[in-house]
Amino acid sequence: MHKQLTTGIFCTLLCLSTAVQAQQTTPKFTVNGAARSIYFADVLEQELAEPDTVTPPRQNSGHALADIGVNIRPSEDLEIQGMVRIRNDFGGFWGAGVTFDIRQLYLKGVLNKVVRYQLGDINYQLTKYTLYNNDQELYDLSPVLLAHLSDQVMYDNFQNLDHSWRQQGAAVDFGFNFRSVIESADMHLFTSRVMPSNFATVSDRLFSSASIEWVQGAYLSGAFTYASLYDLKGTSRNDILLQNPVYTASLSSEKSFGNWTLSGDLEAGMSQTRYLEDPLAPERSDVFSDLMFQLQDAGGKLSISAGYKWVGPDFRSPGAQTKRVLFDAYPAAFDRLTNNQLVRSLTMLDLIRESSLYNLQLSEGLMVYDPRYDNITPYGAATPNRQGLQANATCKLLDDRLSANLNGLMLTEVRGQGTTSYRQFNRLEARLNWEQESYSKNKTRALKASVSLRMDNTSRPADQEGVPSVDLSTMIAGTGLEIEILEKTDLVAGLLYHSYSGFEFMNQTDAYGDIVNFNEFNADGSQWMGGAGIRYRFSDQVYVMGQYNNFGTSNVIGTLPAYGVSQLALLFSMEF
Amino acid sequence: MKRIALITAISTLLLAGCTRETDLFDGPDLNDLYGEFNLLQALAVNDSEIDFAAGEKAVFTAEFSKNINWTLTITGQESGAVKTITGFSRTLDASNATWDGTTTQLPMFRPEACDVSLTFETEEEVYETSVSVETARPVEGLLLEDFEAGWNPGWGSFVQSGADMSFVIRTDENAAQGGSYYDMGGEVGWDWLIGLIDIPGSAYGAPTFDLATNPDNIYFNVLLSKQPDLSNALVLFQFREDDNGDGVYTDGEEDMFSLEVALNDQDGWQLISARYADLVTLVNGAPADPIGNGLNEPDKLIQVSILMLANPVSGYAQALMDLIIFTENGPLKP
Amino acid sequence: MSGTRTSNLKMFVSGSFIMWLILICMMAANTAVAQVEDSTETALGIRPAEEPSPLRKISVSGFYRFFATYTTHDLPYVLNPVINDTVLPASLFIGDDSQLPNLQLTISGKPAPHTSFSFDVFAFQFLNGAIGTTYGAQVPDSLRPSFQDPLSGTRLGGQMNLNLGLNFTGIQETRSGTFTLRAGGIHWVRLSDLTMASFRGYNRFTLFERNPWDPAGASLPARYETYFNEGGINQDTRWGNRAFKGLILDGNGLPKDLSFTALVGKSEFNGGFSPWPSYTYGGKLQKKTGPGQYISINSLHATTWADSLSEEKVGFHLTTLEWMVHMKGFSLLAEGGLGNYFSPVQDAGNGGLISATLTTPAKKTLPRWSLHYFYISPKVINDNSIFLNTAIREYNPAALPAGTIGSTAVLQPFGSSMLRIGQMSNNRQGADLNMEYTLGDFKFNIGLAAQAELEPISSVITYGHPVNQLTRSRMWRWLFPAEVGPYQRYSVIYRDVYETVNLFDDSSGVVINKKFFSVFEPQVKYHSKVFGKNIYLFYLGYYSSVQRSFSAFTVTSEEAYIRQYANELEAYLELGDRILISGYAGYERTLGNYLTDIDEESRRPRNQTGTGYGAGLDIDLGFNARLYLRHRWFAFEDASFADDAFQGQETMVEIKIFF
Fold it and tell me: Which pTM does this prediction carry?
């Protein structure tokens, strides 16, 4: 299937032999890109009986970098973009500490106004169950103050707001219009190389996808999507080949009554995971279906949606389940604490600002996660072994200045783990956003405020005496403020609080992901990060910001003492 | 409205289609994990007499009430050889508890009765059985000497006339393999060299040793034993190559690679293995420029020499040696 | 990175960081090609205090090239018996190991009316899925070369580099003539066939597989149309020229119709970074004696110091007289002279060399003949010219292993080579007759050549395989290993692999038989219309043999050490003006006699059959942008040497865009 698909992309270019392309214009050559310089000064405090004489409490780090993008347009239906990153680490004089790096190189073109193609570095995204780059933990609840820091990390790791994955390969899109039965259908073909062969033990691993989006009429539209992570046969001496295809069909329809519109969205499909020529490997396959109804008023003031989802325990979709954060990685800042140099594990501070903890490539199987951050949807919507209800309500008041959002999940497992009884997952999420063009009478001074809260709980009663029952509850609360105190100068403040307590089992799996043992996991503690800063906006693409914030964490269970890091961050960010 | 009904119908159909039997669950049974541990099937072995030379293998079986970390220890009653197999599972079977006659802790097994014990990390119970080795597991490769059949007439040797010299083949229970080994010892106050053995290729029927051309998958292995509270023994292995193929090693023009082993840490038998491609030219212990063409060519190896050295000032030194053998595609698995 | 304007900020990428800073200061107030008016900014920082002089014009050009091959092999062909490495059943290779990058930007500026500078930056992309922030190879500080000695250690930029380097050109017009000075990076230079030029031959080659540097051409069929009409295809600037780094001074339009070229620097053969001096110098003085006629003296000398004390020199001297004259439509180009080779172990004195071509007038109805004779003594050597060196075992001071920079150990096939017509080699004399004739829709370009060794020096013959030539060179990526393949008889050179044949007719080590070569190269080109669309058919034959006695025609009997018959047929059909379909078929037979290598089992000499079939598509993606798809089936076997057999398929995708 994959071989035809890969050649399919290139054969689709054949069916075009029409009008000569429009008169060409002189090659345009423009420069784009971004630049930034960032500087951190951190101070560590630890609550210890006798003082820590080993760990250096103060650390400074920073760098300046420029991403110079060269955009060449030989003709208006051809574009070549190359981008070079020139980075100079803080303290590097006369060329020391300088690195060059090609950050991006792609060719984009339109063939006869019909076929769009792109080759090289591509940001690609399909549905939530086939290829989707879910946000990292804590990101969607953290205030703007901290988002400024994590935005730099996300920019470095190509994690864009459209949830696309940065891949290297080729993509082709083209569409057809029809007179009857359906109105139009768009084809999207894509293949990328995830890992090159080392000619001995590792074969070339490709990710290929094909999706057809069709529109039947004013009310009904849908799509068929195929996405697969697979090893290319024969490209190394290793005969074992992974094949993990996912097939999904989605359907959406819409009907309006008076000034209300009712719409329904369904996506259902199946996945297969097999290792050819490997006698020990289990063959997995499973199905999922996700149905959502939404009622919305014409003015967009109120919208209520509810639905039911069912994802089988053996559903595997690497494109949708690969996580951004490597929870088994260790932070670089203050990597060891206390006199006997205990290793410091990952915390909120590191998730927000440390680029080396992030994963950039699709990976087979389920990655490690930390139940304290998100034990219900660690792999996003495609988290396996979940079934139940999901609901969401949004309303806008006081002529759109205040918007409130309520989100709920009531899920259970589809198949038990170590017992026939199922875990119950409950989530309640609330958000309040206040946006005001100008709070003062004579000058236009903007004001934005936000409050967000998420409460999660996982529970499972033990069906036999002596076996501990599962009961883990976590709470994440965030609040942020942005006040324009002088023209284009804002005071920005924010706080993010995260607490967790209870007991849960962590699965110990073998090389193929089969559960072989359960490890006990006790959690009781909290962490928080808050502070304030001044931001000056030269334009909406260029700003300079200084912020001072304080991070702290204390855990009743665990070897590390309670400790905190106060951080001064200076950031000058520019896009051009 | 019709369309909404249509959608719900399809989705319920889909859901119905995929409800599966729910009595199954993933992973081990929690009740077992937390229930108390008991042995469901006693420790047993498939055959009490194992003929390793004929390729037979010993397969141990047992079953417990839950997954647990277990250790299987096989100890030779005469040789004291030890083989340990560990695992984490609920059952012992061919896939995780098969013994092919190899050794974890030297000396090697010989035809003898062995005690087998099964112990657990988190439980005190110990289960035992026994098995006996009918024939020891043969070792493939180009065997230079295992000292079972006495002194090889093709060899040359030189022993200094120092105090209580013991360059002699001994047959007793100390042997690492089989029944006999070579005891090199003595005290020479005026020279590092205590004694040496020259093993020419001609002792095996051809001027050079019958080895393949690719140095990457040829391994030289030898078993050496450090005697308790004697840590001054130094054994130097020299590999002379006939680069120009004239049948004679010409000093100063052709390669001589060396491997130096200092017996100064844990006592008792230990396996020394070196990949032929990694052998370097040594001048009194320090790596130096190659003498010949600098290529490790095992097919041109014409003589192996073993020198027993010790610092003259350090007094009596001794080292026991057994089983000198070249293996292919990997070091020797004793 | 100053500049707070958000309008188009002209930034240039350059080799090293310091270069970066200089460039920014120089180009602070400049004009872009798109003639976007730049308002001069306030004073630019502290230094330089005054406004830098504006550049006349900055232009950016270059190309984007994507090239990917997917090869499948049905037989486990042995690549290197020592480490028993065989081909993989399938391999996907994105990029091109003929060192042509994916993106090349040539940035040139004209600081003054007649002076210009240009530099290029290029980048490779192998689509390995290595997406991390260090997309290229990030160089840790410990490995970084110090800026006093920038060449040791790992260079910055990983996959970014300068290809032709920094070139400077200055033109100065004076009353007595125009002088052009070229300096800096690689420039393309041609003096004369015997001194400095690269082989062009009689334009007999196949077009099915493109050279990486082939231009996109004005329109899709232009490439095949030009080949049919004029016999050549429009080539890149490097065609017929040699790469040269150093100082080149040209003087044209001097009084008394004189013109000259003087050059000093390094050619590809004294490359490498060893500190010992190694350079090439020479030049040409030419006097025009009529329309298209001239007399010129060309000379080229190379000297390399072979040891650190600079006592022993290696090199050659070569001086020739060249005469071009036209009489009643006939034209004669003759070049002859003296040359020698000296090294610490050899100094055989001077040897003569001559190459003369007489061409008949170009008449519509009559075929056009050209007769070429050459004689090159075994004592003469000049790797920069079009004649190969198969006689002198060059003394190589640095003894650089094959494939490293500056190493010439393998890049020239050694031993007596079976050449194409027009190619020459030292220790050889020969004559070849070429006929070009147009008859209706057919064009014939047929060559016949007979050559002979002057002295029997080596008992080794080398020859290539025209069918599957590039497929074979792609089995060994990036390296130019020698003595590889099943019987260690292949050696890999740039985009080709030659096979070495040992002869066994010497008497106890002394070579007694001189070798004679006969080559017959028929080429027929046909053009017509099918349903109003152009179709081109090109047939190219190559019948060559090497034997122990003279023969005007190719020897087809057991007399010949090696007989090789290769036939290649290509077809190109325009489907529309944006799509063109192509086909290729190649069949090649090579036979050896019992005086060459014999296989141990079959007890028989070489009996090789090579076949290649291909289909392809050229697609016009828009202005100066082409997509080329090729799919080939290839097979080769040697009936006597059983292990030397490979078979498989290869798909190639190439996108080429010039801007």
Answer: 0.75
